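Discussion board: Methods & Data

I've been asked by a reviewer to show the raw model output for two of the constructs in my manuscript, not just the figures. I'm not sure how much to include, so I'm pasting the format here to get opinions. Each protein appears as its amino acid sequence followed by a line of discrete structure tokens. Is this the kind of thing reviewers expect to see in a supplement, or should I convert it first? Here is construct A:
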Amino acid sequence: MAGREEPPQGPPDGSPGGGDEDYGALVFDESFVEAARLQEFSAQERMDDEEHAAVRTRPARVGGKGLGAVGAAGASRQGVVLVLLIVVAFATAVYMGLQNPYPGAAQRAVEPMRVTTLPLAPRGEVPGSTPEDLFEHSPAAQFRTGADGVTLPDAHGSDHFSESQVLAALTGAKDYVVASSLDPEVLLGNASRSVRILLDPAQLEQFDRSLERPRDDGRHAATGWMVRFDPARVALADRDVRVNGSLTVQEVGPNLLEVTADHVFVYALRPASAGKGAEAEKGASLFTVRREMRFHFGRDDLRDHQLQVAQSAVRAGPTACTADSARALTPLLAGQRAEDDGPAGTDPYARDRSRASLCGVLSDSAQPRPTGR
């Protein structure tokens, strides 16, 4: 039998020995076909629509094992990771901003308040008369009355604080001075909340201990925070307190303002047992308190209208050198004299208490000279 002969024009394309021998080893399995994104229309579909395109795009297989499904899943995972990273970065930035809203602001510990009290003993008998007569013939004759005597200076911005922040510090200091030195309820020991709410929260424990267990240790005297009298002994002969003094402010750090309040307060007092009426008023006397206080204002304090009492220095008289003024000031009233027993002793061995034994003498010029004296 004769052998197979090649056609005159050569072997057909795709047959063994044809031009596609190099692709003979490729196998187009089912997974490869299913993964293809382009699909050829069938002959019937092309006959039905002559203008129809030769191929169409196949939809991506959900959950399929093809190359398109794998690529889509990888891109989806990368997108989710990117979104999560952005959310975490944003949350971290917000948290750090809330924790420290002022970049570079160091967190400063609030120091406890320090207090010193100097009693001023009179040389002789305490003068007595009506409040009007006493004030008119005393150094307080030209003093203003009440909060009008606590005047604010002009406010100017500093290196790190605006003018409004400086003004807020001065206003906060004035509010504390008024609440702690002029409020009749505070003066007679019937209230303390109006003073407490102005304090930085870090000082509240010290303040509360000073009122619950006051002692003369330089830290826990109630009279360091406010002017207080014992209502069982003393009453106000005149609710209008005479005041004179000043407020000054300075920047002591990039995040701290310090306000110094230096005021003289003059109170008209009478014995609590004297009752009321003309005769009781004639038995009034003056009691003078010089308060020098240093207040600190951090940025949080300015925002929350609070302050830190850094130091309180009190000089008050007429009073006895031996008077315990930790709980309340103890004025000598009209007609009384100071006992000539000198200042209280100091025990250097006592570790639980450091009582100051300093005492001053109230100058005669500081005492009123009412009519008839």
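Construct B, same format:
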Amino acid sequence: MGELKQSKYIDITTDYGFKKVFGSDTNKDLLIAFLNELFRGRKIIADLYYNKNEHVGDTEDIGTVIFDLTCTADNGERFIIEVQRTAQDNLKKRMLYYSSKLIADQAPKGNRRAWNYAISEVYIIVLMDGFAMPDAGDEKYFLHDICLCYRDHGKIFYDDLGFIYVELVNFVKAEAELVNDLDRWLYVLKNMSSLNGLSTYLRKPIFEKLFQLAEYSKLKPEEREMYNVSLRNKWDAESIRSSQEDQLKRAREKAMAEGKAEGKAEGKAEGKAEGKAEGKAEVIKNLLSSNKFSISEIAELAGVTVEFVKQIEAEKAKGK
């Protein structure tokens, strides 16, 4: 396989690039520095250990790299982190599954009464490259810091299970706008492969090491081959995602047009409302039959609630 035309630095959001930078004891100071910025002072990691079961999740997923880490904080506390460079499919449910597995795996095989559910803290760190948070709407946050809380007043219910999603598509700062090390890390993650060198905005020892490590010219021939394969895989995934987004857009436009047409056909106010609902119900049935879209995607396409889609799905299952 021939080499691709390369920039000076590798793309560290590829599977290979992510592992090259963050996946070894030699470079764990880079991962510690990055994670500490994500926790924004809430946790300060002093050391970490790469657990042997590196790939806890579904390794057949394209674009998924998982580090299962045991971290030691500066106060001696120990907690578990799973770091991912992940694919888009079923994002929230997969992260919930991975966190549940990390919790369940802590249980001893016997004598659970003595153990008394002494569960360590668990955090899932998700790097989202090239796609947005599902159901985010018009929000443009690039960092989503999530925990269990009360629905009515927002007070934290349980603080020892957390999810941090990094939404790179929403990080749009230029070099001159970087104000802290979190900004610098996200800027480098998103733009490394297009940079020509270390600017004054990034001139810190930790980033100097990162740039030296990420130089394409320093890769061995077999490393270049692995990186080129990883880069092609990323491009393929982006192409598939772009095609799916175009398909969703066309389906949305068609659904809106059909809904409007059905709504106009009735004549009176009530008739219009009923016709629109019937038209949308038919569109929803067609989208359900295609097996290409999730319930939430269909609701968004048809401009209805998730509950309405579920109602149509139930009626369809009964043959109505």
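Answer (T.O., handling editor elsewhere):
This is acceptable in a supplement if you add a one-line summary per construct. For B, something like: The first strand starts at residue 45 and ends at 50.
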